[in-house]
Design goal:
- This protein has 754 residues and is an alpha/beta fold.
- Helix content is 28%, strand content 19%.
- The chain is built from 23 helices and 25 strands.
- The strands form five sheets. It has an eight-stranded mixed sheet, sandwiched between helices.
- Helix 15 crosses helix 17.
- The longest helix has 23 residues.
- The N terminus is likely disordered.
Length: 754
């Protein structure tokens, strides 16, 4: 039986540096990961870091048997950004989660297109669980189960009064997945029950690889301590809570030993941010949580793994950041960070193994993910290129304050505080930041690093995930945060018929590199009315999720009868292929989406590839109009059905059919056949996912069409939006559900990774 390596990340107020000898790992073995992340534990607040008011024998033993980091930094001096940095491997600013904390009414979180550490492990066969405090967004797309965790147990929120008020008299609930276990949660029992749940998860998964993220609610205020630990320390309730955490870390280690997997386990212990300054003359660090003094962001971190090659009894002076765990853990598990994934973390495997005392330059490519930092933008102008090397820039640490602003930069032992005016400190000799020093060369280098970083973030920072806050009337709106994050090319002419031109509006995310899949958005209006602007919100919402989205005009039936409309849709697809390089489009992955008449044209576009009579002469005839995925909504797909025969002849509804197709079904059967998506359906057509309102006609479910697709072995499906009418995209609640489903289907169809 395979022996699995369990990487237990105990990030409890300290992020312990996980290290083990890769020489000891067989290529077929997969490490398991446990992360214990403590809330608000200060740098000196463990025995092994100098605390005398408390006893922490279990964590101290881990330090003695592993690596203790003296210069380890959380991603931010405040909760939510710090957690975002840990789980994405990025500065919180890069992923749009750098400002303050998520409250219960927050509409933002980690964007669904980000690839969290949990998702990385999950995609490689790991069982994953988050047990503890989440605090990374509370709308459906941002919950743990949608960020890579198979299981969740804990508090989604903080327990401080500012957040508790959102829950009224009921208090903050303790959750298991999406079910309330207890409300209100009792702070005094959380440390123990989180550990109980963690142990149960380990025991259930001891024979297969797992990733366990254990972010404790303690030591955040209000503190909670169970009866056996009350009064156990010489530091009041805070010290008591630390000693209870220490005891429960010991329970985790004991479980690993009892299950005989301790020799296959690495444990990392760390805090999400600092708490306060030192308390003795020897403890010189100053500053509190929220600040960018060392006391606000430098935290304890320990890596333990005696059976897997982690150095024992080592105190490392290397500057390590929370973001570094992402590529490092991936390397230890034999997982390459996917191509195109730009993150800020460095692979510190060599440091953990004891092969080096500091983090090797990325260009040396000493380990699997060592070169990942080279994906970051590096375009220094001449002013800075001569004095800042790329590896120096990648090794610098950029401090951000609790409001998200860049406040300082550290490189080696030097720290330049940027606000309120630049002050340089030598941390090797003055960790308390009490005496500014003069060194023009170093000051200029660090200031240049700060400027380069600002330009990098301006160009490459990505959007957070955003859900729309319902408006008073429930109408669909696109948040300014989304629209401002898009590059819009409006009124682009894509086809010309004599003096008649057709235009499209093209949206692309500002922060996206490389070529993206494209989606053509086709408006409705009974083929006789409507405009591309009616699908503008849809195009922007899809673009914000990582597509090039184009909403198009086409000739309406009052101007030209069928097949002019499908000619125009095909011309739009060919135009995008022709201009793929200009707009950054992956020409092999183009889809379509539309509602009502636009839904019909979407379905017809999907099934009529290669039908010469439907191609038209809208330009770029040398290119294919075939699409690779379609989302028809509220669409008619069988124009030869009895229902269509009746509707086309009825007044007044039949008028739009007669204008579009030149008469009734009985009068123009050949035209109706040519316009029917079902007529052209064959084995080579792309997957289609239908979306319909619950109160729309049942014909929009496309039962016959989907059944025939299944017979051809083509993927298809149906989503019915509860309580929704035919024209559902005008209401935010249904619009959001539609975009979520369309995005999921398109990504699956295009085979794209997050």
């Amino acid at each position: 039986m395979l022996r699995f390596f369990h990487i237990a990340f105990v990030l409890l107020g300290l992020t312990m540096s996980a290290s083990w000898s890769m020489k000891a790992i067989a290529a077929t073995e997969s490490p398991n990961v446990i992360v214990i992340f403590v809330d608000d534990q200060g740098y000196y607040d463990l025995g092994c870091y100098g605390a005398t008011e408390i006893e922490t024998p279990r964590v101290d033993a881990m330090a003695k048997e592993g690596v203790l980091f003296e210069d380890y930094y959380a991603a931010a001096p405040i909760c939510s950004p710090s957690r975002a940095g840990l789980l994405t491997g990025c500065y919180p600013r890069r992923v749009g989660n750098h400002i303050w904390v998520h409250r219960a009414d927050s509409t933002t979180g980690i964007h669904p297109d980000e690839l969290t550490l949990a998702e990385l492990f999950q995609a490689n066969g790991y069982a994953t669980a988050c047990i503890g405090k989440w605090h990374l967004g509370f709308a459906e797309p941002f919950l743990p189960k949608n960020q890579g965790f198979d299981e969740y147990f804990g508090l989604l929120h903080n327990l401080d009064p500012v957040e508790v008020v959102y829950f009224g008299d009921k208090g903050v609930p303790l959750m298991r997945n999406d079910k309330v276990v207890k409300q209100p949660a009792d702070p005094s029992e959380l440390t123990q029950i989180y550990t109980d749940e963690a142990i149960a998860f380990i025991e259930r998964n001891k024979k297969k690889p797992f990733f366990l993220y254990l972010p404790h609610t303690m030591l955040h205020k209000p503190l909670g301590v169970s009866e056996p630990f009350r009064g156990s320390s010489n530091w009041g309730e805070y010290g008591d809570a630390i000693q209870e955490l220490d005891h429960n870390v010991g329970r985790i280690v004991d479980t690993l030993k009892n299950l005989q997997i301790d020799d296959d386990t690495i444990v990392v212990y760390a805090s999400d941010n600092g708490r306060g300054p030192g308390r003795t003359p020897e403890q010189k660090i100053q500053g509190r949580k929220l600040s960018t003094y060392e006391g606000g962001i430098r935290v304890p971190a320990i890596a333990w793994g005696p059976g897997v090659g982690v150095q024992a009894g080592t105190r490392s002076k290397a500057v390590v950041r929370a973001m570094d765990w992402y590529p490092t853990l991936a390397t230890l598990a034999g997982i390459a960070v996917p191509e195109g994934r730009v993150i800020d973390g460095r692979d510190i495997t060599s440091l953990l193994k004891g092969d080096t005392q500091f983090v090797p330059a990325a260009g040396l490519k000493k380990t699997l993910n060592a070169a990942v930092p080279l994906r970051r933008r590096w375009e220094p102008p001449e002013e800075w290129a001569a004095i800042i090397k790329r590896h120096e820039f990648n090794d610098a640490f950029f401090y951000h304050g609790s409001e998200g602003e860049l406040a300082a930069v550290r490189w080696r032992n030097w720290k330049l505080q940027l606000t309120p005016s630049p002050q340089l400190y030598d941390l090797a000799n003055d960790v308390g930041e009490t005496k500014p020093v003069r060194n023009g060369e170093i000051s200029r280098k660090l200031r240049g690093m700060a400027i380069l970083f600002q330009h990098e973030m301006l160009a490459d920072a990505r959007l957070p995930g955003v859900v729309n806050k319902p408006t008073a009337n429930g109408k669909t709106v696109i948040p300014r945060l989304i629209s401002e994050g898009l590059n819009a090319s409006l009124g682009v002419t894509y086809a010309r018929y004599g003096d008649r031109t057709l235009e499209m509006d093209i949206y692309r995310p500002n922060d996206a590199w490389g070529k993206l899949s494209a989606v053509v958005c086709i408006h409705g209006g009974g083929w006789a009315n409507g405009s591309r602007e009616s699908h503008g919100a849809m195009a922007q919402a899809l673009a914000s999720r990582g597509y090039v989205a184009a909403t198009i005009s086409y000739r309406l039936s009052g101007e030209a009868k069928f097949p002019a409309q499908i000619h125009d849709c095909k011309a739009a697809v060919r135009f995008l292929r022709s201009h793929a390089d200009e707009y950054g489009i992956d020409a092999d992955h183009i889809g379509a989406i539309g509602l009502s008449a636009g839904g019909h044209l979407t379905a017809l576009l999907a099934t009529s590839g290669g039908v010469a009579d439907l191609e038209g002469n809208g330009g770029n005839s040398q290119l294919s109009s075939v699409i690779q995925a379609a989302v028809p909504m509220g669409a008619q797909t069988d124009f030869l059905s009895e229902r269509t025969r009746e509707v086309s002849a009825a007044e007044p509804k039949g008028v739009i059919w007669q204008q579009f197709l030149g008469g009734t079904q009985e009068e123009r059967p050949a035209v109706y056949k040519a316009a029917s998506p079902l007529t052209h359906l064959d084995q080579g057509d792309p997957p289609c996912w239908f979306i319909a309102g619950e109160h729309d006609d049942a014909s929009t479910h496309a039962d016959v069409f989907r059944r025939q697709m299944n017979q051809h072995g083509i993927s298809s499906g149906l989503t019915v939006l509860k309580d929704a009418p035919h024209g559902f995209i005008g209401k935010q609640v249904w619009f959001d559900q539609m975009v979520e489903k369309a995005d999921q289907f398109l990504k699956d169809s295009f085979g794209g990774e997050k």
